Structure formats: C-alpha cells, structure tokens
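Complex 121.
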Amino acid sequence: MILGECPYCKGVVSSKNITAQGKKIKLYSCENAKKEYDESEQYVFTTDSSCRFRVYSNAFLRWNKRSFSEREMKKLLQDGQTVVRLHGRKGTGEYFKYVITDEEYGVSVLWEEEVEDKDTF
Ligand SMILES: [Zn+2]
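Predicted structure with zinc ion bound:
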C-alpha cells in the first residue's frame, strides 16, 4: 500500500507486513531505503539505497503504543508531523505528543512540545 512521498528523497513510501522477532508488524519504507542481510548476517542498507527513511509500526512500543498505523503514517508524510497517543506504565494515564519524521531514525518524538488541542487528532 502506498502511503505517500518520502520527505527526504521524494521516493514512494509504502507499507508492507513483516515479521520481526516473531511479531507481525508493518514496515513503512521509502523505495530508496532497502535493507538486506550481508555475508556476515548484518541487516544493512543495500548498496543501491540512496535514502534511509524507514519506520516500523512498533516504533513507539517503548511508550506503550502498540502500533503506529498506516493512517498515522500517511498523515505524518502529508503534514510533516502527527500526534500520537502514548501511555505511561501500567495504570498511569495517556498523553499526546507530536511526532516528526527523522532522516536517520524514521520518526522522532517532540518531548518538549505540549499538544494543545488533542481533540483535532
Ligand atoms: Zn527516501
């Protein structure tokens, strides 16, 4: 499924289902950011990759957001930012943060920014 345009190289960003460590997740990646296993079993960018923009749907798992959806990824590509709902540890409340694209890490959370009007998301 095509989600939008890569903010770094204007390539096509699409989603695909992958299995990582036994879990089914989605990978949103720029067509110019391909990875493969090399001879020493390292997962590296292919030599013809000119971009590094890749986002895994479990990018926010650490903050108890199970999945960053295709819809959220589309919005991120379209607007350059989106808002995600994160959760504290068990029993603590949820909170909202802005997320922007990051050339190296795919996504990056703006921890310093407060989300004013979360109802619009
Ligand atoms: Zn790209």
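Residues 2-120 form one domain.
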